[in-house]
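With this grant's support, we have settled on a layout for protein records. A representative record follows, to show the layout.
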Amino acid sequence: MKKILIPTILFLLFQSCTQDNNSSTKKHNIAYGSDSQQKMDVYIPTNTEENTPFVVWIHGGGWTAGNKDDDRWIQDYLYNNKIASANINYRLTSTANPNIDGEEIYADVDAAIDYVAAHLNEWGLNNNGFVLAGHSAGGHLALHRGYKYTNQDIKGIASFAGPTDFYTSNSRNHYFSNADLKGMVNRLCGTNYQLGDSVPQAFYDNSPLYFINPDIKVLMVYGTIDNVVPYFQAEMLRDSLQANNANYELVTQQLAGHDLGLLIPTVKEQLSYKFVQFVKSL
């Protein structure tokens, strides 16, 4: 029995925490809460640059689907460029889980940041602040929590095709003219809105556009022919950032849809490099 137990324990330890030859660390499926979806992967490269913030990456999927494993490529890229990061899962909205909406998701993002902050010293890192980043729904969550979370110092936000507004008529006409998008936004906001109804306060409350913090630098990457998150959402955020004298950069992907051209290797490399330079500039 002992001969079986010891190798089994070693195998489990190897699964949860692997190290390469230069003592950098990759920790998988760390629980930051009690729910099975509240898990994160933490990558800590050796010799991280002294003042570089810690990146929390948030996956997309319309707040209803997706997984951190889908975005492991960007965490690998950060790791290879000496940037520590956490890639998080969170509770998802669905018709089967009517008690989960944006408030629970926001609480998960906040809890993940709190968990990382509490363990930085254990991981051999200084608290140099945080960058919140993600694609699509993850970009929305990065913006929303970047502006509304206050427990830690948020240095920067990177939104890759993240929704910025659900409140204005143009935004509502877009999101609620499509059955799939309508369902996603209603579940996020805890509403049952149909075009023509009175506009719920929840649409304002869940729109990052109305909570700008000019002290937080923002990187925006949006495609001009995105039919999920239309380019005018980026323009609205840009205009609000300008009006608030905020520091930002808008990267416009010409003739790119919601995937931003990331399926093209050269584009993927360019945008990954842009993100790394953004983080290191903070």
Remarks:
- The CA atoms of residues 22 and 84 lie 15 Å apart.
- The first strand starts at residue 17 and ends at 19.
